[in-house]
Amino acid sequence: MNKAPTGDKFSPRLPVCGGIFLMLLILLGGCSNRTVQINLVPTHQKVAPHFIHATTAWFNNNRVAIVNVSGMLMDSRGGLLTSGHNPVSDLKQTLDEIAHDTRVKAVILRLNTPGGTVTASAMMYHDILSFRRKTHLPVIASMMDVCASGGYYVSCAADYQMAYPTTITGSIGVIVQLFDFHRSLEYLGISAPAFVSGPNKETGSPFSKMTPSQSRIIQGFVRQFYARFRGVVKKTHPLVAPADWPRLTDGRPLTGQSAARYHLINSVGTLQDAIALAKQMAHIHHASVVIYSRAAHGSGSIYAKAQPIKPLGQLNLVNIQLGSAEMAAMLHPQFLYMWEQ
């Protein structure tokens, strides 16, 4: 029987093979602009309300609107193994539609997301705050399976945060994942010289070894974004004990039950509880419950991206894109408010 490696000697095979595989993907992507798409979910659609529960009360047009915020939060239409919609644009478009519907008396954000990019999370947070200032409607964040990191950041814009006891939330912090291919390139005898205007222009490049100066720059960004996250949480959660802040903001995930105990959310409760609370905060007794989702042919919002023309009736469930731009984007430093499992 072959003995397992003891670890006394370094074997370059694993990192080299991994580096070669990723570089081949990049090179193959650069040779073609084709994409591979599996299409099963309608695209190019406008958000519109769909009834979940209609009130039986006479002469009552009151509505409680449910808005879904799910998946990875990015200001883009997705890429490898992600949906083709832009979650930032979707939220903005949905809130704009609701703002013009005088029948809506309260809004529930149904969140199921591990977070996403720093900027996308901040954009969605500010869009919700702007919606609240404009409409004066109560907004309740109802957390599902996961509402962590950037998802939790977004939920802080609501008037009230509610989670299931088993929800995974918290994870207050920042992460940036960088690739380093310079050793793999050396192993293959490949050089990738870059002509730069300054010593830090290549900061974050996967093709050169990071210098101490560049590392300090990246870590400085992380500290700035982390301070911003902590500031938002502290501003919106005055009941958290000062002694608990270091532990609650060290990046650890928490259950909804624990988050409520430490006052990171207002209470535990179900989606039905959130609906009841929404009606109470809106001072109404009866209301239809509507969920906003996509219908046919919408113009999108100010964040919407240009979309390619597709044949009528085409559907889009999983949009797998393997073009050069998507592969290159995988290697760019992405600062994330995200819980990585």
Entry summary:
The chain is α/β, with parallel strands linked by helices. The chain has helices spanning 13-30, 87-99, 118-135, 150-155, 182-188, 212-236, 245-248, 256-261, 271-281, 324-331; strands at residues 45-53, 63-70, 104-113, 115-117, 139-148, 160-163, 168-170, 175-176, 253-255, 267-268, 288-296, 335-338.
Tell me the distance between the termini. 34 Å
What is the CATH superfamily label? 2-enoyl-CoA Hydratase, Chain A, domain 1
Instruction: Please give the radius of gyration in angstroms.
Output: 23 Å
| Global morphology | elongated
> How does CATH name the architecture?
Alpha-Beta Complex
Number of helices: 10
Structural domain tally? 1
- Number of DSSP-assigned strands: 12
- CATH fold type: 2-enoyl-CoA Hydratase, Chain A, domain 1
Characteristic terms for this protein:
2-enoyl-CoA Hydratase, Chain A, domain 1, single chain, disordered N terminus, 341 residues, alpha/beta, 9-stranded mixed beta sheet, 20% strand, elongated, 12 strands
Task: Describe the secondary-structure layout.
Elements: H1 13-30, E1 45-53, E2 63-70, H2 87-99, E3 104-113, E4 115-117, H3 118-135, E5 139-148, H4 150-155, E6 160-163, E7 168-170, E8 175-176, H5 182-188, H6 212-236, H7 245-248, E9 253-255, H8 256-261, E10 267-268, H9 271-281, E11 288-296, H10 324-331, E12 335-338
